[in-house]
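Q: I'm building a small set of examples for a reading group on sequence design. Run inverse folding on the following structure and report the sequence directly after it, with nothing in between.
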């Protein structure tokens, strides 16, 4: 047996979630499975790791939100291995080191199987790193292998729950877990009356403690009788920044370029094919944010191992190296307190450029690997019986027309999303600014998908018109 045959045999025998027997699932069926997975995700986040001693990752709230994880629980790995596998595979495919023909069903199956194998590999690798480098340390009488096995089990559950949502629910599990984590974080940062606890100390209600609560609204009411107007302004502007990110993200999502097309077989009838300004949606920002989260996590673990090649932390704050430059400053808070420096401005500019540049690179790779390039879109339009009005029915004509729009939208949309995400992070918005932006975009797409599914269930003829069964 050749190496290629053996590899294909392994891919074909990987465990997977079975696809639904019917071609189109009903709205209620998709909603049911999406809610079931969401509830399971929150329940798993409450299950602590058996035998866990020191949890050095507990203070990295930004990482846990972006990775859809709950450090110290069985899902401490979150979506990290899945996203890391996607990044690595896109880089390998985009550079030509590995080649997948994504125009064929066999090529797509090979790509998806390779991504799943890489995800399992990174689940094992990251579980071993978390435990081996002291991020999650076992108790004295507990073997490290027990923690690694629990992390591996949690990682597999996240992997298969993502597959369940993709095949049986709305959207993808990766997006759903990020949105769930960010939504919980926003509610806590807005309404929680508990104080921020010291390590090893349980949080308590702020009444009578003299400490500020975590929630912005309770903090405002707590600061009013004390006359702490700077703290009041910081919290008010954090709420305003959060609302601004919501509004701008929704507006950007609604911007579209509409291409007029006609049905070749039906004279006088046509449609406008929409191309979203944010063409690759939230995928590039997820990948960039996950890359930053992984760099910060590895930096912390490498420092504990005695090799701070990615930078150093003092307590929970980055102090030097790459992690310092990739950690956003709260510029609004610095301006209000009057301690903004030129170094802060330079630092923030580097962070914005990294977010924009990373989003553009990942967006270009994603267009090629996800079948969103002009050739693939032209093929889809041709199969739907569409053509450019006034031109003969030819895929090359459609491809030439789409090439005027797709490459610029890919770059400009990604740059806009990267800038908006970085600006939100620098504004001190509730939770992570990047996470809030991602959640808005995820919820917006979920709303569009749910509305489309509901319309097709209400009007079966619409499904036939759209090409469904």
């Amino acid at each position: 047996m050749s190496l290629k045959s053996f590899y294909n045999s392994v891919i074909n025998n990987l465990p997977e979630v079975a696809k639904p027997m019917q071609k189109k699932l009903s709205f209620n069926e998709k909603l049911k499975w999406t809610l079931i997975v969401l509830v399971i995700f929150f329940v798993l986040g409450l299950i602590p790791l058996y035998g866990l001693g020191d949890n050095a990752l507990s203070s990295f709230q930004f990482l846990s939100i972006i990775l859809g994880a709950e450090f110290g629980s069985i899902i401490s790995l979150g979506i990290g291995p899945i996203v890391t596998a996607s990044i690595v595979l896109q880089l390998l495919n985009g550079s030509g080191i590995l080649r997948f023909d994504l125009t064929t069903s066999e090529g797509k199956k090979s790509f998806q199987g390779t991504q799943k194998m890489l995800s399992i590999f990174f689940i094992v690798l990251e579980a071993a790193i978390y435990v081996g480098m002291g991020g999650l340390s076992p108790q004295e009488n507990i073997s490290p292998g027990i923690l690694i096995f629990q992390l591996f089990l949690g990682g597999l559950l996240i992997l298969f729950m993502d597959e369940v949502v993709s095949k049986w629910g709305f959207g993808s599990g990766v997006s759903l877990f990020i949105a769930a984590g960010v939504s919980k974080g926003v509610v806590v940062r807005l309404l929680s009356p508990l104080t921020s606890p010291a390590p090893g100390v349980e949080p308590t209600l702020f009444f009578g403690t003299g400490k500020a609560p975590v929630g912005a609204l309770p903090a405002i009411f707590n600061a009013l009788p004390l006359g702490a107007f700077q703290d009041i302004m910081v919290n008010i502007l954090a709420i305003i920044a959060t609302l601004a990110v919501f509004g701008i993200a929704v507006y950007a999502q609604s911007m579209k370029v509409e291409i007029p097309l006609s049905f070749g077989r039906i004279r006088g009838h046509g449609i406008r094919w929409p191309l979203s300004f944010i063409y690759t949606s939230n995928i590039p920002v997820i990948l960039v944010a996950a890359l930053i989260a992984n760099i910060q996590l590895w930096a912390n673990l490498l420092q504990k191992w005695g090799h701070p090649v990615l930078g150093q932390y003092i307590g929970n704050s980055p102090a030097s190296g790459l992690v310092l430059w990739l950690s956003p400053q709260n510029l609004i808070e610095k301006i209000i307190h009057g301690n903004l420096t030129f170094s802060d401005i330079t630092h923030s500019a580097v962070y914005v450029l990294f977010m924009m540049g990373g989003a553009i690179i990942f967006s270009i790779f994603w267009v090629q690997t996800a079948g969103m390039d002009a050739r693939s879109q032209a093929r889809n339009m041709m199969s739907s019986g569409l053509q450019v009005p006034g031109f003969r029915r030819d895929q090359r004509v459609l491809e030439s027309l789409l090439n005027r729009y797709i490459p610029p939208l890919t770059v400009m949309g990604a740059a806009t999303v990267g800038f908006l995400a970085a600006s939100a992070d620098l504004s001190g918005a509730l939770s992570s600014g990047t996470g809030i932006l991602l959640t808005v975009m995820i919820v917006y797409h979920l709303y569009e998908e749910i509305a489309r599914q509901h319309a097709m269930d209400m009007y079966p003829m619409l499904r036939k018109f759209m090409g469904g069964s």
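The longest helix spans residues 105-132.
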